[in-house]
TrEMBL record:
GO terms for biological process: sensory perception of smell; signal transduction. The keyword Signal applies. Gene3D superfamilies: Olfactory marker (2.60.120.390). Residues 1-19 form the signal peptide. It comes from Seriola lalandi dorsalis. Pfam families: Olfactory_mark. Keywords: Signal. This is Olfactory marker protein b.
Amino acid sequence: MVLVMFSELSLLFLMSSELELPFRPDSQLTEVMRLRVQSLQQRGQKRQDGERLLWSNEAVYRLDFSKQSLRFSHWVVQLAQPGRLTVTATSQLWTPDLTNLMTRQLLEPAGVFWRAPGDAADAPIQCYEADAHEFGERIAELAKVRKVMYFLFAFAEGCSPETVDCSISFTVDS
């Protein structure tokens, strides 16, 4: 019985591999969203009802899926200094080239990762583990129907794009 269980696990291991995908800044889309805020301010207009504008501490990042059959494994987040990173996904209903981002198109939960002042440089990054795990599983589910996904990265408490390296690891089913 143990031998059979071992064989099944071995087969599962042989049929799957690990894939780490980096989040990449989308500077063009970030700029477009910043110009939207600037345009509204210059004209003295308000945002559309339910529209989600980009805050000054936020940037748009993207995740390109090279495979579609994925299972969430773990987050790989590095913060070079104390700070807080909040990663929020957008739904597949947002088409950035056609529509403004609406608050209803933001997915929950968000991934929140931080390094507290006084933490050792080699201390693990802290996060809300249950939310981060659920968030990762949700991204894996959406990868089945999407080639690209967009995210809002919010940098706070000393965190900045220059001090963050973030990727997500999946197991690829073959």
